[in-house]
Amino acid sequence: xxxxxxxxxxxxxxxxxxxxxxxxxxxxxxxxxxxxxxxxxxxxxxxxxxxxxxxxxxxxxxxxxxxxxxxxxxxxxxxxxxxxxxxxxxxxxxxxxxxxxxxxxxxxxxxxxxxxxxxxxxxxxxxxxxxxxxxxxxxxxxxxxxxxxxxxxxxxxxxxxxxxxxxxxxxxxxxxxxxxxxxxxxxxxxxxxxxxxxxxxxxxxxxxxxxxxxxxxxxxxxxxxxxxxxxxxxxxxxxxxxxxxxxxxxxxxxxxxxxxxxxxxxxxxxxxxxxxxxxxxxxxxxxxxxxxxxxxxxxxxxxxxxxxxxxxxxxxxxxxxxxxxxxxxxxxxxxxxxxxxxxxxxxxxxxxxxxxxxxxxxxxxxxxxxxxxxxxx
Length: 377
Known about the structure:
Blueprint: E1 2-9, H1 15-31, E2 35-43, H2 55-68, E3 72-75, H3 81-91, E4 94-97, H4 98-109, H5 113-127, H6 160-190, E5 194-201, H7 207-215, E6 232-238, E7 243-249, H8 259-264, H9 266-273, E8 277-283, H10 289-302, E9 310-315, H11 332-335, E10 341-343, H12 352-364
Parallel strand pairs: 1-2, 1-3, 3-4, 5-7, 5-8, 8-9, 9-10
Antiparallel strand pairs: 6-7
């Protein structure tokens, strides 16, 4: 993929927000082995209903694509079927919106049956509105791996009812998987000796690396967005107090996560709903780390788990200080607005022992009577 990225500053988005979002979009392009060869930036009060950027800017986009030999335009927003059709007609190259790109990544990363079903469900839900009256490539935009029709097949030959039936079937299959996972987790819920910990955070913050460091479990790790989609769990034991902690990784978040993706991945978030403690992993070397922390917290509030005990794990500090000697825990809470916090480097192993002690502290508060009663420190 040779991509041109398009961002629009409207009255609802600041210039800083647009530039930050475009930078993240570039990371998403890299995650599908694409390269960004150009960016088009525009400021307008409201998006144009026909082309989002206006006909003049769309023509400029066509010229930019021809001059750079781009094969794809990626908009940092969600486009309507009409907007996609009009922009493709003007530019004569493939047009993706932000959700399309995220779904492309999910399609490549999904490995288990559950993840594949969730990706297919999200894709069909995103593409369904485009099936009404649009001819051409809408359902084939995401590409291989999906159970949607091929690029050469006209949308007029695809029945919307068939898509809806497939969505219904997938939801039933996911419900069965959900029940199976519930049965697998029942023993944890009954045990007063097991602390249930969920790792959450922005994608590529280092959750999988932290899981491996704490539990010595091998897991796929890569420095790219959405490197892993499937829920993973492993144990850490505290023999001196007769307790254990089961740590569960979850799919990473991005800002303004599309609704259909959020719904499709609610199964991975169920682990957070049942958690006794949340470890919120943040890449502190990212200049927008506080904004991303707050973005994840908004999602946690949306699924009503924001009142659970949580520890903010500021990771990748080795990228901003030369050695562990410079670590100072006295002002950690001040960095995050009095949230319970520990600054670590998972890669270097800095302060991991402090984080383990925090987990041990919460595990020691588990009570037989309450089952999973924990008090904030």
